[in-house]
Amino acid sequence: MLDVILRAYVATMDFATSPFVLVALAFLGAYLGVKAVERIPFTRRIIERREAQAAERE
To answer: Which domain of life is it from (predicted)?
Structure first.
């Protein structure tokens, strides 16, 4: 069991050192972060308040 875990860890570390994989992970993380902010009601209310304030200033 430990052997399988160590092999998976080493394989993951090999992928993580590739710049292409890191860029892909960064884009994936940014996308998921935006989706998480849209889904969380508290952050959605903050964004709506900021947009309303900006609309009032115009």
So the answer is: Bacteria
